C-alpha cells in the first residue's frame, strides 16, 4: 500500500518537473541510482570479499529505494511476499543482476541480491589479482506517455499494450519510450589491469585513459563517453556529485562537457563520487519514439 | 591445488629475480656503498591502543614515475594499501620485488636508513634529480606523507620538519 502511494508520488513529481520545462521533454525523468562498493582498492595475499549497496536515491550515498533482489522478509520465512510495484516493473526488477567482469576476462553473475526496502545488498569474492568492472544490469524500462483531454501530461510504466486499459478517456499524443540504465563501478585487488576496461560496444559507456582505480586529489581523470562502441560526437553534459549531500547545503555538482566524447575532470576533494549522465536518441524499436540511455558510475577519489 | 601452483610460480619468479640481481651487480661499474642516508623518527604518540606505523621510503623521477622502494616497514599486506601513495606507485606492481627492503614495523625512536644506490633488482640508479617520498600510516591513527626533491650524486643535507605521524627527517646525499 505505502509502496504504491510512493510510486504515485514519484510519478507526479516527474510529471510536474516536465510541466515546468518549456517543452515536453523526457530528460531528467530518471531518479539517481547507484552502486557503492565497500572497497575500491584492496591489497591482499588472500581472496577478499567486497559488499555492495545499491539504491534508487538522490541523496548521496544514503539509500532510499531498493532496486531488486529477494525481499528480506522472505529469508527464512514460509510466506513469500512480493514488493508492490506497477506490474510492468516486476520483470525489470526480477531481471536484476550483479555482473562482475573479472581481471582474466571472465564474467560471473550468479550473486544473490537481497532487498532491504531502502537498498539492495550483495557481495562478491575477489579471488584474482587485478581490476574488476562491476555492473548492475536490468531489463530496459518501457514508459508510455500521453496527454489528458485537457492537455496535461501523464505516463505509465510499461508498453502501450501493457497499459492500454489504464489510459484515461480522451488520452492523446500517446508515445512510448525506453529507459536503459547502466550502473557501474570498478575495484582493483593488488595490481591495476585494463583487460575489462575496454568498452563492450553496446549503449552508453566509458572508455578510460586514466584508470578508474587510480584517482587522487589534484589529478585528472581522462576518459571518453562512448555509444555503441564509438566516441559519442554529440556534446553530453556530465554531472559529478560528491558523497555527503545530507551534510551540506549545496549539492556542489561538478559539470563537465564532452568534446567528441572526450572529457576531463580534475579532482578537488577526496571522496566517493557519482557520475550521472543521459543521452536521448530515436529508438530503433518499432513503435517506440525514443530511448534514453542513462549512466551512473561510482568513483572513489583518494587524498594525496 | 591453486595455492600450490601459486607457490611454484613465486619460487620460480624469485629465482629469476635473484639471477638478475647477480648479473646486474657484476655488470655495474661504480659500486657506491652509501649513496643516501635518511634519519627518521617514529614519533612517540600517546594513543590507546597504539599500533606501530607502517612506513615506506621510495624514489620517483621528477615526473612521479616510480623508481624503487628504499625501505618498507610493514606487517600485514591487507593494510599495505593504506600507504596510499607507495601502494599506487610501487606496492601493487607485481613485477616489483621489494622483499629485500621489507622489514617489521618499528617502535617509536630514531632510525637511520642507508641506501646503496641500487634498485630492488640490484641495478645502480643513475645520478640526477629524484623525488624522495616518505609515507607513514598508523592503524587507528593518522597518515603523513612528505616528498622532497634530491639530486643523487650531489652532496647535500636536507631537513624536513616533523609531521603528525613522522618526526623530523634528515636526508644526507653522499
- Structural class based on helices, strands and sheet pairing of chain B: alpha+beta
Number of domains of chain B: 1
- Tell how many strands the DSSP assignment of chain B holds: 9
Total domains of chain A, how many? 1
Q: Please state the structural category of chain A.
A: mainly beta
Strand content of chain B: 35-45%
Please, what is the average pLDDT of chain A? Answer: 90
| Oligomeric description of these chains | heterodimer
Write down the Rg of chain B.
17 Å
- How far from one another are the termini of chain B? 50 Å
User: Any low-confidence stretches of chain A, pLDDT <50, length ≥5?
Assistant: 1-28
- Our estimate of the beta-strand percent of chain A is 35-45%
Of all chain pairs, the largest interface belongs to: A-B, 15 and 14 residues
Count, helices of chain B: 2
- How far the N terminus sits from the C terminus of chain A, by CA atoms, comes to 49 Å
CATH class of chain B: Mainly Beta
Give the strand order of the largest sheet of chain B, numbering strands 1, 2, ... along the chain: 4-3-2-6-7
Provide the low-confidence segments of chain B as ranges: 1-32
Largest sheet entry of chain A: 11 strands, mixed
Largest sheet of chain B: 5 strands, mixed
Helices and strands, with pairings:
The complex is a heterodimer of chains A (304) and B (174).
Chain A: H1 2-20, E1 33-37, E2 41-42, E3 48-56, E4 70-71, H2 90-94, E5 97-101, E6 107-108, E7 114-115, E8 120-126, E9 130-137, E10 141-147, E11 153-157, H3 160-163, E12 172-189, E13 204-208, E14 220-227, E15 230-231, E16 237-242, E17 254-257, E18 262-266, E19 271-282, E20 290-301
Parallel strand pairs in A: 2-12, 4-7, 12-20
Antiparallel strand pairs in A: 1-3, 3-8, 5-6, 5-9, 7-8, 9-12, 10-11, 10-12, 13-14, 14-15, 14-18, 16-17, 16-19, 19-20
Chain B: H1 2-27, E1 36-42, E2 54-60, E3 66-73, H2 84-91, E4 102-103, E5 109-115, E6 128-137, E7 143-152, E8 156-160, E9 169-173
Parallel strand pairs in B: 3-4
Antiparallel strand pairs in B: 1-5, 1-9, 2-3, 2-6, 6-7, 8-9
Amino acid at each position: 500500500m505505502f509502496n504504491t502511494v510512493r510510486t504515485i508520488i514519484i510519478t507526479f513529481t516527474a510529471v510536474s518537473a516536465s510541466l515546468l520545462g518549456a517543452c515536453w521533454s523526457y530528460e531528467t525523468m530518471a531518479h539517481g541510482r547507484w552502486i557503492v562498493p565497500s572497497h575500491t582498492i584492496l591489497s591482499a595475499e588472500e581472496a577478499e570479499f567486497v559488499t555492495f549497496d545499491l539504491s534508487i536515491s538522490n541523496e548521496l550515498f544514503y539509500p532510499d529505494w531498493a532496486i531488486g533482489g529477494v525481499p528480506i522478509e522472505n529469508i527464512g520465512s514460509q510466506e513469500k511476499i512480493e514488493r508492490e510495484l506497477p506490474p510492468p516493473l516486476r520483470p525489470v526488477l526480477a531481471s536484476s543482476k550483479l555482473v562482475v567482469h573479472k581481471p582474466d576476462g571472465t564474467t560471473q553473475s550468479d550473486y544473490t541480491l537481497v532487498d532491504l526496502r531502502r537498498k539492495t545488498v550483495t557481495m562478491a569474492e575477489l579471488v584474482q589479482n587485478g581490476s574488476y568492472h562491476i555492473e548492475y544490469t536490468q531489463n530496459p524500462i518501457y514508459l508510455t506517455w500521453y496527454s489528458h483531454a485537457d492537455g496535461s501530461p501523464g505516463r505509465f510504466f510499461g508498453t502501450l499494450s501493457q497499459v492500454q486499459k489504464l489510459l484515461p478517456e480522451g488520452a492523446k499524443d500517446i508515445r512510448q519510450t525506453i529507459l536503459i540504465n547502466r550502473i557501474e563501478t570498478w575495484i582493483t585487488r593488488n595490481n591495476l589491469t585494463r583487460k575489462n576496461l575496454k568498452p563492450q560496444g553496446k549503449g552508453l559507456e566509458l572508455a578510460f585513459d586514466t584508470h578508474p582505480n587510480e584517482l587522487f586529489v589534484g589529478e585528472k581523470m581522462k576518459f571518453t563517453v562512448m555509444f555503441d562502441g564509438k566516441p559519442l560526437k554529440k556534446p553530453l553534459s556530465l554531472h559529478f556529485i560528491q558523497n555527503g549531500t545530507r551534510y551540506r547545503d549545496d549539492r556542489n555538482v561538478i559539470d563537465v562537457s564532452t568534446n567528441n566524447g572526450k572529457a576531463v575532470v580534475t579532482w578537488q576533494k577526496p571522496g566517493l563520487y557519482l557520475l550521472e549522465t543521459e543521452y536521448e536518441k530515436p529508438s530503433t524499436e518499432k513503435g517506440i519514439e525514443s530511448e534514453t540511455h542513462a549512466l551512473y558510475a561510482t568513483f572513489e577519489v583518494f587524498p594525496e | 591445488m591453486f595455492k600450490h601452483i601459486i607457490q611454484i610460480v613465486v619460487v620460480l619468479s624469485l629465482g629469476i629475480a635473484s639471477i638478475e640481481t647477480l648479473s646486474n651487480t657484476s655488470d655495474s661499474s661504480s659500486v657506491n656503498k652509501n649513496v643516501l642516508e635518511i634519519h627518521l623518527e617514529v614519533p612517540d604518540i600517546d594513543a590507546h591502543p597504539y599500533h606501530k606505523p607502517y612506513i615506506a621510503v621510495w624514489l620517483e623521477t621528477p615526473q612521479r614515475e616510480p623508481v624503487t622502494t628504499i625501505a618498507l616497514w610493514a606487517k600485514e599486506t591487507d593494510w599495505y594499501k593504506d600507504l596510499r601513495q607507495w601502494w599506487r606507485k610501487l606496492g601493487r606492481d607485481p613485477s616489483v620485488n621489494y622483499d629485500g627492503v621489507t622489514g617489521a614495523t618499528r617502535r617509536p625512536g630514531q632510525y637511520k636508513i642507508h641506501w646503496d644506490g641500487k634498485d630492488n633488482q640490484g641495478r645502480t640508479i643513475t645520478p640526477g634529480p629524484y623525488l624522495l617520498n616518505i609515507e607513514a600510516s598508523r592503524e587507528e591513527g593518522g597518515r603523513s606523507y612528505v616528498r622532497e626533491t634530491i639530486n643523487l650524486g650531489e652532496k647535500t643535507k636536507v631537513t624536513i620538519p616533523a609531521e603528525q605521524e613522522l618526526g623530523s627527517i634528515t636526508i644526507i646525499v653522499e
